[in-house]
Write a structure and sequence with these properties.
7 helices; homodimer; DNA-binding; globular
Chain lengths: ~150, ~150
DNA sequence: TGAACTAAGGTCAGTAATAGTCAAAGGAAG
DNA sequence: CTTCCTTTGACTATTACTGACCTTAGTTCA
């Protein structure tokens, strides 16, 4: 049931975890070949799953000896970083923005997968109860829940 | 007597029981096909029977390879009463009502004094940001934060 | 040295595959 | 008959995947 994009994402994350250097380099064509797909599929995965919002940096070079390098953003202090992320939440938050923040925090082990699911569930449930102002509610809810979690752990 | 929605509910619960993992994944279209109904009927069942208050988390994704995943979250007996209290929170909540609930939960050791202060602080902060609909926001915020706390402890 | 060739990677728009929303119609229990 | 729950379907939104075409960098050789 999980899509090809999911598999590619998982594979890259596994490479990242086992790299030790927080950064991996790969060949787009090679990758596409390994997964039997068109090369642009790799770009699709990168642009949907490895965004800056989610805490990843992607660099690349074309031409002979070209490459794609994927790194995780470096933070000195996870706690301070999380607080900054929280502060970056404005008064409105779309579902996609929320997801990016949650995945970012999960990938950096600031919240657990279970907490991520719970927050998503709670927000979905509450947002479903109102007609207007969902983005406003989402912002409040996510800010509060994350603040609570971070505060509880510190 | 027993409606189609009931059958679908029972079927999903049976899948959950026999899954071993406390979570099942299904395809909305497939499900609708199996029960010879329109796909949105599945949404109806999910939104009326598999709510957070009843102990379920529903996640889904659209698009190719899309899915609906239903997970179970279990609440211990100690907290069942608190959950019922949560359910009684309507769509609006005044500051006074909120305080009554928080104090009650603190007195019954469901939340700690620190958590009480934290919730009050968060709600005050968020409520201060908006002009209208404070009671609506308070209800969502308190319900969500308390649910999160209870869920995290059980 | 620079034109032509080779070897990467990037973009974008179109198609297909799912799921979600909402309001209206239907039906059963009081 | 009224009210509440169920069922339906038309319309919408999101996500995945593909292929044609574009850009950039290195290499070769007249």
């Amino acid at each position: 049931m999980s899509s090809l994009a999911d598999h590619i994402e998982a594979y890259i994350k596994k490479m990242l975890r086992s790299s030790g250097t927080n950064s991996v380099e790969l060949s787009r064509a090679q990758m596409a070949d390994d997964f039997s797909c068109v090369p642009s599929q790799i770009n699709y995965v990168l642009s949907t799953r490895f965004t800056l919002e989610r805490g990843y940096i992607v660099e690349s070079r074309r031409g002979g000896g070209g490459y794609i390098r994927i790194g995780r953003v470096q933070v000195e202090d996870d706690y301070a970083h999380a607080v900054r992320l929280l502060q970056s939440i404005g008064s409105e938050l779309t579902e996609k923005q929320m997801d990016n923040i949650l995945v970012h925090l999960k990938d950096h082990q600031i919240i657990s997968p279970r907490e991520l699911r719970l927050i998503r569930g709670i927000v979905q449930q509450e947002a479903g109860k109102i007609g207007q102002g969902r983005n406003l509610l989402r912002a409040s809810l996510v800010r509060s829940l994350l603040f609570f979690i971070i505060e509880s752990k510190s």
